Amino acid sequence: MASPRLFAPDPIDLADPSPYTALPYYAHIVIGLLAFVAIGVALWARKGSSLHIGAGKVYLLSLIVVGFSSAAMLAVAFVPPLMLAAVAGLYAAISSWLALQKSRQWVVVAEAGLAIAQVAALVVFLSFAIPAIRGGAVPAPAIAVLCVIPALLLLGDIRYFLRYKEREKLRLGRHLSRMIWAVVVTIRAPLVEVVAAGLPFPQPLLVVGPIILGFGLIWYFSRKYRVPAAFVI
């Protein structure tokens, strides 16, 4: 395994997967594109329809495959932001699916386990990021932005578990919120590559754009489907 580094080899070269091996590298890209299509269909399909449910399942399964491909890539070159994004994306998407399940002991255990995994990922990421900040390698605001979505998800879990007796009322809002934050994590990854490739893209939009989009989508769909807006849950 290569020595850990804070950022990945950029930009992505479609003709050359190195330092990664070809299968997880290309699977990551192709299945990631499938996830984009699936979530687009799921968001705009009539809620509760077979199309919505089917597209949501494809999106969740796609993210799981992307998670495995990320793990294979991280085994070759451990890149803390990739690890943090992979865990946050899976954390958001799987907890969105769990929110729709009836209250069972396995559901509670799974929800708590996901939160613990996200805390662990955040601690590992910061163990690399803080020395990089102190050494002047990266600015602190850049690290803070990477931590925003995991922090929002964890704050949501605190609120959710404190109100767990109201789970039936919170389920739809949590499902919607978590799925949209998973989308935001998915969107941010290719945006980073766009900037790394030298294409003209406003840096402030890369930094705050996906987060603003997340809040905007939650507000829009909460109003459309008359679900209490749950930006953090």
Automatic annotation (TrEMBL):
Keywords: Membrane, Transmembrane, Transmembrane helix. It comes from the Bacteria. The keyword Membrane applies. The keyword tRNA processing does not apply. The chain crosses the membrane at residues 25-46, 58-76, 82-100, 112-133, 139-158, 179-199, 205-222. This is DUF2306 domain-containing protein. The lineage of its organism: Bacteria, Pseudomonadati, Pseudomonadota, Alphaproteobacteria, Sphingomonadales.
